[in-house]
Amino acid sequence: MTVSANWDIKTDLFLNDEIINQYMDLITQRSPETVYAFNTFFYSALSDKGYQHVSRWTKKVDIFSKEKLFIPVHIEEDNHWCLVYVDFLKKTIKYYDSLGGRNFMCLKLILKYLMMEHINKKNVDFRPGGWSLLNVKKCPKQNNLWDCGVFVCMYAEYLSRNQPLTFSQKDMGRCRKQIYFEIKNKKLIK
Prior knowledge:
CATH superfamily: Adenoviral Proteinase, Chain A
Structural class: alpha/beta
Number of helices: 7
CATH topology: Adenoviral Proteinase, Chain
Low-confidence stretches: 1-5
Largest sheet: 5 strands, mixed
Order of helices and strands: HHEHHEEEHEHH
Distance between the termini: 23 Å
CATH architecture: 3-Layer(aba) Sandwich
CATH class: Alpha Beta
Shape: globular
Helix content: 40-55%
């Protein structure tokens, strides 16, 4: 699968799930010891069908050995992408929405997922005490209705490198070109 078959950078405003998945794969490949990114179908499968449906998605990966976990979230009714970021070192689950939305249901579902996954894979209870669930208010925001997928990719890319989120709406053209170039070359620039 190549990016040119899925995305015309000159005419496509929206990033589809295939592009976001390819980009999340690149983020995981850059730091496989410390970072893992789920694909775009994970959250909807978890929320629609429950833990049992996704319990085998991690049969080859121990997410608890990672420092960072990224989960793209598609809000169907709004056709909008957001990002959940699990920081295992700081014990936080954060929700990034480029339109400024809040989603405590999503945060609670991910915490419940971690608890069930830990019992299933480690045979030990996951203790949620000390964990924080945060809707991030101070993050870059979009001022149109089509750049949410780009924001999700950039949130994950910057957070995976422990960099401050210094991009903004005015950078989206450059970010789109970066995403296109990196997927086409199968390697992140930084």
